Amino acid sequence: MLRFSSISLLALSCVALFATRVLADELEDVAGDITPPSAEPLIGSASQMAPQQLVLSNYKTEAFLLSVAVGLVVSYFYGSRKNKELAAAWEKPISDVLRANFSLVGDGRQVFEWDSAADVLFYASGRRHCKFAQGHVVLRARQDAVALINDLAANTQEKVEIEVTLNETESSGFVFAAVPRKRSKALGRDRYDIATFTKVVSNEKVSPKVAIFSENADATTQLLDSGLGDILASEASLLEELHVTDGPSEKPESHDFKCDKKLMAVIRLPAATTEGLAQFKETLEFVFYLVDYISEAIVLRPESTRKLAKAREEAFKEFTRMAEQEKQDALAKTLAEKRRIELEGVDKMSPEQRRKWEEKDRKKQLKKEQSKRVRRVR
Ligand SMILES: *[C@@H]1O[C@H](CO)[C@@H](O)[C@H](O)[C@H]1NC(C)=O
Ligand SMILES: *[C@@H]1O[C@H](CO)[C@@H](O)[C@H](O)[C@H]1NC(C)=O
């Protein structure tokens, strides 16, 4: 988003800069022509040149650049207003559903928070089976002519993204995703949890345009039985993507990574007609229904639970090793520090005391060596 606005800003600055340059050049020409060419009488020359220079057609470039700049400014105000109207239309169903489900919506008064002229954020907390939910309404960049052309060319969808952070303890941890088939390659490449734990499976029930990433057949079957299967079977459905995960979206860099259980959904925004709004509301309600369904209705077989745990153990093996190594390094450091302090004390001893200490220390080291050797033999 920011990138597109900056491209437009850059374009606008270039136009302005270029216009100033052209204007300056032409004014210079006019000024240059006014200065008398040597012997010619001054008055006659100036009165000959002036009308010719001020003809409007000589300012074609400026006129063009000025209209581009004005166009960009007008489209900014027009586009921003259009997006405000659209957001107001979508705010109603979103806040209705949030208020019916959460005790705290937005900051208590306002539901939507503008992030840019084409992005709106919302937040809610206080609901069973989850910690909080956050959402993002992504509209077309109508305020930004360059970005809008880009949006239209790429045929980007206006959509609402919702991410619900589930209660850790109340649901099984598994990974699942349903996405448009054309997005499946990118998803399998970009998301660590999907790439690590799932495989694309075929399911004759869902639309052929949808790719299903499944980790565990037991979990996937139960999830699709929630009504999700029917929604994914219909090509008219607004539910564009759905992910359930208990893993990190990116490969962790250290062993103390945190991963929440999450339910994420992308809902396509149809035209804001009465039917469109109603269909959208129904889809959003279904997403929150899934929060309850995942926590209450999905009960995995013991062997499925074991398999899921094993897959996580296997995937996070290197992090377990990292944690172990870190612990050992810390221990070695403490021991070295202890030894340093001990040797410092020895420096202050009398020769007799030192001899005794060295004797004792030699025995201690010997014992340590022996116990190490015994351990190795075993
Ligand atoms: C969520 O909202 C829907 C209506 O939008 C309602 O039927 C449902 O009971 C609500 N769920 C909870 C847990 O409040
Ligand atoms: C999560 O569920 C547990 C067990 O039902 C409950 O004690 C805890 O308060 C819940 N946490 C949140 C954040 O709702």
How would you describe what is shown here?
The protein is α+β, with helices and mostly antiparallel strands. Helices cover 59% and strands 16% of the residues. Strands 1, 2, 3, 4, 5, 6, 7, 8, 9 and 10 form a 10-stranded antiparallel β-sheet that branches. Strand 3 and strand 4 form a beta hairpin. Helix 1 packs antiparallel against helix 3 and helix 3 packs across helix 8. The N terminus is likely disordered. Bound molecules: 2-acetamido-2-deoxy-beta-D-glucopyranose (2 copies).
Question: Outline of this structure?
Answer:
This protein has 378 residues and is an alpha+beta fold.
Write the layout of secondary structure elements.
Layout (H helix, E strand, L loop, with lengths): L1 H33 L7 H12 L6 H42 L2 E2 L7 E4 L2 E9 L2 E9 L6 H10 L4 E8 L9 E5 L3 H7 L1 H6 L1 E3 L8 E5 L2 H17 L5 E7 L16 E7 L5 H24 L4 H14 L1 H31 L3 H27 L1
Antiparallel strand pairs: 1-3, 2-3, 3-4, 4-5, 5-10, 6-8, 6-9, 7-8, 9-10
Helix pairs in contact: 1-3, 3-8
The chain binds 2-acetamido-2-deoxy-beta-D-glucopyranose (2 copies).
Properties at a glance:
binds 2-acetamido-2-deoxy-beta-D-glucopyranose, 16% strand, ten-stranded antiparallel sheet, alpha+beta, 378 residues, disordered N terminus
